[in-house]
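job 3f2a | input accepted
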Amino acid sequence: MNKLLFILCFGFASFAFSETASNNNPDTIPPAPKSVLESLKLVSEENYFPIIKPGSWTGLPGRAVYQNFIGSDEEPELVIAFAIDTPDQYIFLMHSDKPKINFDKAVSNAYKNLESIDIDFQLVGTGNQQAEAISTSFSSEAILSQKHMRALHEILDAETLLVSVPTRGVLRAIALDAPDEVFVDFAETHIATWNEYNNARITLDMFVIKDGEIIDLLPVGGN
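job 3f2a | predicted structure (223 res):
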C-alpha cells in the first residue's frame, strides 16, 4: 500500500484534470418522452436497478430516492439512486412515486436485479493485467455486487483489487500489487476517461476491493 500511495502522489502530479470538459451527457433529470411515460404505467417495484451518482447530482436533495454511498449525509460525495433503463433515458425512483411504488421493495429488488444480470469482463492493457467491464447500462454498478467483484478477483487472480469507475458504463480493475508500469497505464486511462466526459461522470477516486467488497477508498482529487 505504501508503494501504491507513493505512485499515486508522484504519478498524478503530472496528470491534468479537466474541469471544463464538454458535457455531452448532462447529469440531469430530463422530462420523460411520451413513449416512456406510456411504458412506465406498467412499472412496479420489480424493475429498478441501483445507479451510482455524484453528490452534486441535480436529483438531490428531496427529489430522488437514494442511499448515501460515500461521504456524510450532510455532504454526500457519492449516492446510490434507483432507476429503470429505457431506450430513451433512465427513469429514476422519485419521492413523488409514493404511494404507487413501495420504496423498500423497489430498493431490495434493485440490488437483486444487479446480481442477476450478466456483466462480462475482458483482459486489456499492458500485459493483459487489467480487466474492464464490457460496457452496459449498469457496468459501473458492478462495484456494488460481491458476485461481480468476485468474478474480477478470479479473472485477475488477485486477492485485492483497485477499481476505477470514473464515468457511467465504465469499470476497470487491476491487482493492487500490479507492477508499476501496469498501474501507470491504469491510472492514465482512468484520468483520460474522466477528461473525455463521453458519459456522465461518477468519481475520480478509486476503490480497494477485497473478498468482493469495498474496504477502502483512494482519494485522487479533482472531483
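job 3f2a | The helical segments are 2-11, 34-40, 103-116, 146-156, 180-196.
job 3f2a | closed
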